[in-house]
Amino acid sequence: MKTNRLLARAKSLKNKGDFEQARELYNKILDQSPQNPLAKKGLLAIDDRSDATPHVSRELELQLKSATTLVSNGQLYAAVNSLNKLASKYPDSATLFYTRGRCFQLTSKLDAAISDYNRAITLDQNYADAHADLGVTLNVLGQSEAAIESLQRALSIEANHVTALCGLYPLKQQPDSIPIAQIHKLYESSKLTNRERILVCYTLARAHNKLGEENVAFDYLLEANKLSKAEVGYKFYKSENTFSSIKKLFSVKHPILDVDDFDSLSKIRPIFIVGMPRSGTSLTEQILDSHSKVRGAGELDFLNQLAHIIMQEQQANLKRQYPKPLSKSSLRAIRTRYQGSLQALNYPENIIIDKMPLNFRWVGLILSAFPEAKIIHLKRDPVATCWSNFNNYFPVHGLGFTNNLNDLAKFYHLYADLMTFWHQRFPNKIYDLCYEDLTENQAQETKKLLAYCELEWEDACLNFHENTRRVVTASSNQVGQKMYQGSSKSWKEYEQQLQPLVKALNY
Question: Mean pLDDT over residues 30-42, rounded?
Answer without folding.
Answer: 77
